[in-house]
Amino acid sequence: MSTQTFETSSTPEAETVSKTELSIFSEIADHNSTVSNVPEGCVEVNTYNLSDQYPDDLVSQETFLTLASIHSGVVVPTLFLICASTNTINMIVFYKHGLHERFNLCVFCLAFTDIINLMGGFLTYVQLPNSIIMKAIAPDSTTLAPVMQVVQDYNLLGLYGFNWASQLISAIVACERCYCVVRPLKSQTVLSTKTMAGIIFTVCTPAVAGYFVVMTRWKLVCTFDSITGSITFVPTASKFYLQNRQLVDILNGTVYGFALPGFCMTVVTVMTIITVMKLKQMAKWRETTSSAGALSAKEVGLTRMLVGTSALFISCATPAFTLFTAILFVPGLRLSGPYHYTFSVLIKVYEITSLINSSFNFFVYYKFGTKFRETVNKMCHCATTCKSKQTAPRQRDRSSTIRF
C-alpha cells in the first residue's frame, strides 16, 4: 500500500493529515471504488505519493514499508501472545499467593494494567483484518467496519493509557522495595496493603483518564480520491480537539510525551540504584554481625526479583524517552517533517519495547522468585496430572472393548 497524504477541503474538521499520521491507523486498508462522483458522507481529496517528498530522510519508503510489514505481521502478534499468556499466569500466581500482602497486590496490579494495555493494542491491530473483511463484503462502503466503528464511538484507544498506569506502578514498586530495604522495620507498619492500594488507585486513575482525553483528538473520516477512485478512512482532527487544542497538546506533548516517561524512568533508576547499594551494604554486615534490622530471606528474594524487573523496565523505557526527548531538539523528527519515515520506524521500535516490557516480567519472576517458580511448576504439574487422569479411563475403555 503506498503512503499518501490527503489534503482535505477547507472545512473546520478537515485538516491536512498523513495517512500515517498515527501509527495506530497505519494499517487501515483502502476500499477501492469505481464511483465517479463523491459518495455521500465522504470528503473529496487530492493525493500525491510521498516517495520523493523526503530526500533527506535516513529511511526510505521501501525500507519503512518492509519494516512495517514485519512489525505488524510477525513481531506484534508474537508479543501479543506472549504478553497475554504471561500476564494471565502472573495474575493467577499472585492471586494464589494472597493479595493481602503488599508486594503481591503491586505486581498483580502491574500484570492487570499490562493486560488492559494489550487490549488497546489488540483493538488497534485487529482493524486490518476487519477492514479486509469489510472490503470483501462491501467494497464501495462509506461506513466504518464494525470493530473500527465501536473503537471510535467508545474511544477505546484510550485503553493505551494503561501503559502509563503500568509505568507508574513500576515506579511505585521500585519506591516500595527501596523503602523496605532502607527502613525494613518501619515499612512493615507504615505501608499497609490498604495504603498501597489507595496510592495505586490515586496515581493511576488520572493518568488513564487523561489519555482518554488525548485520544478524543482523532476521528476517522471517509475520504474519496477522484483521481484514483478509492475510498479511504483517515484520522482527522475532531471537533473536541479543535475546541480544546491547547489542553490536548499539553497532555499529549508535555505530560505523556516527556514529563511522565521521564519521571517514571528517573524514579525507577534512582530507587533501584539505592536498593542495590543498600543490599550490598547489608550483605557485608551479615558477614561480620547479626543485625536485628536486617531483611528476611524472603524480603531479599522479593527485592532481587524487583531489581530484575526494574532493569527490564529501564532498558525498555530508554528508547521511548530518548525519542520524545529528541523530538524537542530535532524539529524535523516528526511525521510531517523531513524525517517522516525515520520517525515512523522509531515509533514502531517504541511500540515493540513497550510490549516487551509488558511481556517479559514473567521470566524475571520465574528466574528470581523461588515461590513464584514453585507455584508455576505446581500449576503445570497439576495440569499435566489432570490431563493424564482424563486420558487414562479412555485408554482402559478402549482396551476392554478390544478384549471383549
Instruction: Write the element-wise H/E pattern from the N-terminal end onward.
Output: EEEEHHHHHHHEEHHHHHH
Largest sheet, if any?
A: 6 strands, mixed
Report the portion of residues in β strands.
5-15%
Work out the helicity level. Answer: 55-70%
Broad shape: globular
Largest sheet, order of strands side by side? Answer: 2-1-4-5-6-3
Q: How large is the count of helical segments? A: 13
Structural class: alpha+beta
Q: Tally of extended strands?
A: 6
Q: Which stretches are low in confidence, meaning pLDDT under 50 for 5 or more residues running?
A: 1-36, 400-404
Q: Tell me the radius of gyration.
A: 26 Å
- Quote the distance from N terminus to C terminus: 65 Å
- How confident is the prediction overall: mean pLDDT? 78
Task: Describe what this molecule looks like in 3D.
InterPro entries: 7TM_GPCR_serpentine_rcpt_Srw (IPR019427), GPCR-Ligand_Int (IPR052954), GPCR_Rhodpsn_7TM (IPR017452). The protein has 404 residues and is α+β, with helices and mostly antiparallel strands. It contains 13 helices and 6 strands. The chain has a 6-stranded mixed β-sheet with strand order 2-1-4-5-6-3. The longest helix has 44 residues, at 245-288.
Q: In summary, what is this structure?
A:
InterPro entries: 7TM_GPCR_serpentine_rcpt_Srw, GPCR-Ligand_Int, GPCR_Rhodpsn_7TM. Helix content is 68%, strand content 8%.
Features:
single chain; 404 residues; alpha+beta; 6-stranded mixed β-sheet; 6 strands; 8% strand; globular; GPCR-Ligand_Int; transmembrane; G-protein coupled receptors family 1 profile domain-containing protein; membrane; 7TM_GPCR_serpentine_rcpt_Srw
